[in-house]
Amino acid sequence: MFLLGSLKSQTKIAPWRVVIRTLKVSVVGAGGGIGQPLSLLIRRSPGIDELALHDLSEMKGIAADLSHVSQEGKVIGFTGEVELEPALSGADVVVVAAGMPRLPGMLRDQLMAANGSVAVKVATAVSNACPGALLAFITNPINMIVPTAAEVLKAHGAYDPRRLFGITTLDVVRSKKFIGDAMKISPDKVNIPVIGGHAGITILPLISQCQPEFKGGREDVQKMTHRIQEAGTEVVNAKAGKGSATLSMAFAGAHFVDSLLRGIGGQEGIIECAFVASELTEAPFIASLLELGKYGIKRYLPLPPMSVNEKEAFEKLLPVLKQNANEGIDFARKSLMEKAIPAALP
Amino acid sequence: MFALRLCTQVSRVPFEAFNFGRGGSMRGLKVAVVGAVGGIGQPLTLLLKQNPHISVLSIHDIRNTAGVAADLSHINTPATVCNFEGKSGLKKAMDKADIVVIPAGLPRKPGMRREDLVDVNASVACEVAHAASAVCPGALLAFITNPINVIVPIVATILKAKGTYDPNRLFGVTTLDVVRSKTFIGDILNVDPRTVDLPVIGGHTGHTILPILSQCQPLYKGSDEERQALIRRIQEAGTEVVKAKDGLGSATLSMAYAAYHFVESLIKGIKGSKDECIVECAYVDSDVTEAKFFATQLILGPQGIKENIGLPEMDDEEKQALECMLPNLKKSIENGIKLGEEMSC
């Protein structure tokens, strides 16, 4: 593999190819509105030996399509529940975009009835096929889905809290964009932590920590915070029943997967916000700044300082996250009971 | 949305037809995508939104553009997104664009050849040609709509009739044939497909697609049978995907990938590059063979085609394949020219 680097100087060798190993990424829900563009963005990255695309609907066509992209590595399609474990077998990273999107008027929480089973099935399959993989969920509602998956992984003896993520990168992307626009600077030059959860008021952009500094009065900060929290709904409404954010979610998801891969490859200083099991607060799961490494989370960065208003908002969102986590855990336990699988002892 | 458009127009250097690029390397470009909501259009606009040289990304389709625009607009890259719909929106979408890329139209179903799409997709060519003449005569036009072999002559004919034709600025995107060739050859030679390079000339359907294996770098050595099988696979790769999708469409993601690569090269050409020579294959107005339109390698520059590299060296079999397919290609071109003369839209 290293010899090829010298054949054409313009060819980029992926930063995570520091050791010679085969790298497999699996996309669950690869046939959907997020899954397809997400798979394309991942396929464009070098260094992935196998890209497995899974969905309930027929994947032959999409796999054939993407396999024509002139990139190293294989693209293989897997269709139906029976092929989920083969799709995941030996994966290093599993990203899950499967499930239903919101319709106008719906809150993310209302998706649990439709999407909770995605978390259960995928966590079960991961336990059997790739228990060491980094597992990253896009499926909403993240605040419940991640706790559900954790509970199922625990029951199968395959749980490592450093390897399970809810992708909240889109909240960071949106924050950078809205703040960049407001400050009339390039949105890729903004840095801001977004902590908490991934629905409504649980999304807490720490505008007081924004670099460069956000210069706005209290009202401006409130409006900006509200817009970031409701940005997902903004797109659901604009799509008028045709779905939720797909392209921006694919962008954000691909960025996060790229960071996971860089961490696996040993690159230093990879910091991302994500929704994870955490002891930083009383909420069992929360999004905060993490340093990513070879085996998932290397380090939990301490919570950033907060302004008075941010502390207030933070106190309000904690009980919501706790409630969401309990709902997610209950869903998992009910599902496990139905399958007669004993839940892990608390 | 309207206020946003006013903003972007006020901040732009005044545009002169046929002379874009004068603004220097700091000016961001306006790229319009016609058919932005479709299977190719959406992933294509996602890739374009990430290009740092694009300051305005204008998306157009017959419906549902507001949702796609809102979605794209959240991505934290510099390009501003604006959206337009329908016949009345087309001119606004393309107004003063530097580049217009057109994936609009219907895809093939299993059993169809690209030529079968002419009846339904010719109107796309017609409408875009009229709009381009009116509002962005200096733009680079890159058509993805099939059948390319016919669509590009239609557009050229209409632009000529309107007196706004520049043969250096009209392209049929054939990059996906090059991408597929690189992938299949990379697989066979067991090398990174990005390190494979070869010209793919001719047209963009069946036997008119001519991958010149004798000029492949690294060298491709296969038996006669293997070469034939490889050439056939490249020629039929589009059909391979149409069949695999079983009625649900044709190549979308790989097409978006290839089209983005081509537009990226057009942008590099506009921006000018001292170090790099920007070379791409595309289907263009040509006197390289007796066919009036023909795909060869082109050097791209600030005004579109800087130089047509012309026919590569070919071995006897390749020369024969070229002779064999020319009548078919010429017929498609005549058909396109006739349609261009007769059509009104």
UniProtKB/TrEMBL annotation, chain A:
Keyword annotations for this protein, in alphabetical order, are: NAD, Oxidoreductase, Tricarboxylic acid cycle
Q: What is its EC number?
A: 1.1.1.37
Q: Does the keyword Ribosomal protein apply?
A: no
Question: Where in this chain does the record put each Lactate/malate dehydrogenase C-terminal domain?
Answer: 168-331
Q: Where is the Lactate/malate dehydrogenase N-terminal domain?
A: 24-166
The record's listing under InterPro entries reads:
L-lactate/malate_DH (IPR001557), Lactate/malate_DH_C (IPR022383), Lactate/malate_DH_N (IPR001236), Lactate_DH/Glyco_Ohase_4_C (IPR015955), Malate_DH_AS (IPR001252), Malate_DH_type1 (IPR010097), NAD(P)-bd_dom_sf (IPR036291)
A Pfam family the protein falls into: Ldh_1_C
* Source taxon at top rank: Eukaryota
The reply to whether Secreted figures as a keyword in the UniProt entry is no
- Enzymatic reactions: (S)-malate + NAD(+) = oxaloacetate + NADH + H(+)
Q: How does it assemble?
A: Homodimer.
UniProt record similarity statement: Belongs to the LDH/MDH superfamily. MDH type 1 family.
The protein here is known as Malate dehydrogenase
Q: Which organism is it from?
A: Drosophila rhopaloa (Fruit fly)
Automatic annotation (TrEMBL), chain B:
**Record's InterPro entries?**
L-lactate/malate_DH (IPR001557), Lactate/malate_DH_C (IPR022383), Lactate/malate_DH_N (IPR001236), Lactate_DH/Glyco_Ohase_4_C (IPR015955), Malate_DH_AS (IPR001252), Malate_DH_type1 (IPR010097), NAD(P)-bd_dom_sf (IPR036291)
Tell me where the signal peptide lies. Answer: none
**What reaction does this catalyse?**
(S)-malate + NAD(+) = oxaloacetate + NADH + H(+)
Q: Which UniProt keywords apply?
A: NAD, Oxidoreductase, Tricarboxylic acid cycle
The protein's matches in Gene3D superfamilies, at most eight in alphabetical order, are given as: Lactate dehydrogenase/glycoside hydrolase, family 4, C-terminal, NAD(P)-binding Rossmann-like Domain
Under SUPFAM superfamilies, the record lists:
LDH C-terminal domain-like, NAD(P)-binding Rossmann-fold domains
Database matches in NCBIfam families = MDH_euk_gproteo
Instruction: Tell me the protein's name.
Output: Malate dehydrogenase
